[in-house]
Hints:
By secondary structure, the chain is of the alpha/beta class. The chain has 14 helices and 14 strands. A hairpin with a 4-residue loop joins strand 7 (229-233) and strand 8 (238-242). Helix 4 crosses helix 11.
Amino acid sequence: MAEYAPSSLDLEDRYSRQMLFEPIGVEGQRKLASARVLMIGCGALGTNVVQTLVRAGVGYVRICDRDYIERNNLQRQQLFDEDDLAQNFPKAVAATRKLRLINSTVTIESEVVDVNHRNIERLSEGADLLLDGTDNFEARYLMNDLAVKTNRPWIYGAVIGASGLVMPIVPGETPCLRCVFDHAPPPELNPTCDTAGVIGPAVNIVAAFQAVEAIKLLCGKRDALNRQLMSIDAWTGRVVNLNVDASQDAQSCACCVLRDFAYLDGRKVSVIDALCGRNAVQVQPGGKREIDFTVIAKKVEPVADGKVTHNAYLLKACIGEYVLTLFADGRAIVQGTDDVDKAKTLYAKYFGA
């Protein structure tokens, strides 16, 4: 695919105020136009980060997200609206549609997919930078493994309540995520937006810091990177930069020192997992499946409460106390339970062969 070269009109008009900022200038803008990024997760942080980068003129963006839009997303996920909700669009599809209206000069691709050890290398092919819009440590450790193995930078971001964390990770230059957080906290000590809540301004602040670090990297301004772990409390206005160099100095990191890529190799993977405290479970069947939504809809309709709806991307059915959403790649999200065995049973019963 040919790289986008910004026209003189783009440089003089669309990006004029950005280029007036001396650290970027015309040369930095041209580097942005030739840059390629992978956005993994397109929820609260992801929609904000990717919108900023598309407006800034990053030349190519690939968005990967496994989920669909829910009404409670609209409070903080700024690319989505009620029309997207009504049309049952997956997040990646809805985001891509909006972003193409914002900046038609940027190449934007979407994949409605659960990013995992089997597909992340394909999805990241050609990307200069990986961006974290995920909501769990397993996905972040997977990104960290790939970044370290392939010597590519990525930007960690997290937000809950009014608090957030941001850290750019440059393999060989900064501590990696496993240096700082050797193990993920247990679920009972790891609050989610469904247990602790989250406010939109905190999301916006964390995403803004992620985006500015991304722009620095893509413009080639690595000397300007904030190489510390930034801790933010939007409610109190507290911003603290934590020096994490000592974590790398210990020389014991399983990932960047011992080169043990357990998450990327698939040795630490959850095929079935609960989703961010949502009283929902994702079921990922083994192997590939050919999904015919029309056939499945006819199968499920006799037991469904109300109409079974589907489009090109997903099928949704309400059965008793559960909402089952089946995606084109064979995954399903079973809402109404956090019991993995129950979710597996429901999947087999209604979506199995």
